[in-house]
Amino acid sequence: VQLQASGGGLVQAGDSLRLSCAASKGSFSSSVMGWFRQAPGKEREFVASISRSGGSTVYADSVKGRFTISRDNAENALYLQMNSLKPEDTAVYYCARSRMLATVTRASLFDNWGQGTLVTVSS
What we know:
Layout: E1 2-6, E2 9-12, E3 17-24, E4 32-38, E5 45-50, E6 57-59, E7 67-72, E8 77-82, E9 91-98, E10 110-113, E11 117-122
Parallel strand pairs: 2-11
Antiparallel strand pairs: 1-3, 3-8, 4-5, 4-9, 5-6, 7-8, 9-10, 9-11
């Protein structure tokens, strides 16, 4: 599956932003999907993961209650709704696919990555 993330931009603290990830050429609906982010000078970190059906989700503690991951298997699309954004959410955000059968959080378990989309949150 090929992944294309979009929706990043420059926002102010407290604003909302919705990221999208379009998938093509593969079995999107049979794949666990996730969002990761990488801030300047830091390692890539897990943000959220969603099961194949969308019925199960996992979030990093840092975004729990503010971010919502969702998917539309009919449209081969993955989303990340980000509310109450903070300056520390500034990063390049990546969508990724895992062949695992359940939601996972380790980057090493995701084998297909899209290009990133930059989110910048100003204070």
